[in-house]
Amino acid sequence: MNTNRSPRATAADGEDTARGGATPDARQLRTILIAVSVALMAVIASVSGLNVAQTHMAVEFDASQSTVLWIINIYTLALAALLLPLGAVGDRLGRKPMLLAGLAVFGVASVTAGLAPTAEVMLAARVVSGVGAAMIMPITLAVITSTFPAEERGRAIGVWTGVAGGGGILGMFLSATLVDVADWRWLFVLPVVLVAVALAMTLTSVPDSRERSGHPFDTGGALLSAVAVVGLIYVLQEGPEHGWTGPATLTGLAVGLAALAGFVAWELRRRDASLLDVRLFRERGLAGGSVTLLVVFGVLAGISVVLFPFFQAVLGWSGLLSTLALMPMAVLMMAASGLAPRLAARVGARSTMATGILVSGAGLALMATFVSVDGGYASILPGMLAMGVGMGLAMTPSTEAITGSLPRERQGVASALNDVTRELGTALGVALLGALLSAGYRGAVDGRLHGIPPEAADTAREGVANAVEVADRTGPHAGALVHAAQQSFVDGWQQAMWAGVGVMGALFVCLTVTAARPSGD
């Protein structure tokens, strides 16, 4: 790993210490951690919050489903594209000013979105929200890694990863509650309140730190990284909608892969002056942490795609109750994230990641084995709980492996790399596990539609929710159609879950084999 640091960077560290005085005491560190966690929660809650308001937006804006999905996805696209460049800018200009600016941009954009009179204004507001989120997210983790002493850093990263992992579910629950008891526009009250709290706490408690670099900003690397991320995430988001072999999908894939290849070549050429020194991926810590985080968030996002239709279309639950059903998994995930640093201190980071992957894979296997229409929530709860524990154990050491692989003056970039990996994993998991679920459902339901009116059967093939909606119009066939769709969904569920078990198993073997060699744990 390249940890060479220029005299100017070393001097900057001394300046940071002098500027902040003595090392923050326990109370100050706790306040800093709360401040950055609240800021992170605002960003994470906005990723998934609008999912519960799709129907409301479509009606109010008279918008198509495609437009509604763009309103939701454009935020993630802007966020992911700008994470690396803005993380590097934060390292140079100062992490506290960047965090304050990001919170201000994000807050104004959230207010604008909540008041948006048209779909076009909403789209623009969501893009700006994504820009603000990209200013906030990498800085929250960079503040932790550059401020907390080594003996406290793992525990603080555990809290951060717990909020990053479980915060989306908690945000979805609060959003669903607001939609049920008030109006969908109140969804934006939550991030605005969180931003206001984070702003006040950041102004009074978060110290500033920055890099003094002898190299100019890597503009070429920043542009190439943004194009690569946009192209690849666009493919993963739009592939299921336009078809994996459609012109738009193939064009996005070609642009994304070309930009990625160009980024790697450019960064290798710039070496120490690069935005991200790609040579560091030769280190097993960075590579192992990145792959683990990619898989963990991919499976976690894919699980959400599977669970919500099960709760709503198979069990007949409301959006609020469906979100509440995810809370046990989120709570255990956050708790395990906090405990992971202690386990890593005893057995090593790589062994802790492997344990988390093993437990997560066991949870997937439990759900695949015992899920049933008649068994309901009880048939999947043990697997969900195991997933929560396993994910929490895997996330913290993988995040620490990524941030620990880059020097202190590049912590904005290290944090951004962590966040980009999460976003790519999320998009990949939704696309692949969602596709497996859909394919499994269609393959199973075809053989169960004998005697169903042709028009209703065609609707039922589109998905379990479509089948439940059209069933009332099929007269005496309603019960049979609903049962066929629900059972076919469970069959597709099992196919997706076993695929997840296979991915987890391969990652576990990889981590176990590499852990047997000398490592930097």
TrEMBL record:
GO terms for molecular function: transmembrane transporter activity. Keywords: Antibiotic resistance, Cell membrane, Membrane, Transmembrane, Transmembrane helix, Transport. SUPFAM superfamilies: MFS general substrate transporter. Residues 32-517 form the Major facilitator superfamily (MFS) profile domain. PROSITE patterns: MFS. Its main location: membrane. It comes from the Bacteria. Residues 1-22 are annotated as: Disordered. It is found in: Cell membrane. It is a multi-pass membrane protein. This is MFS transporter.
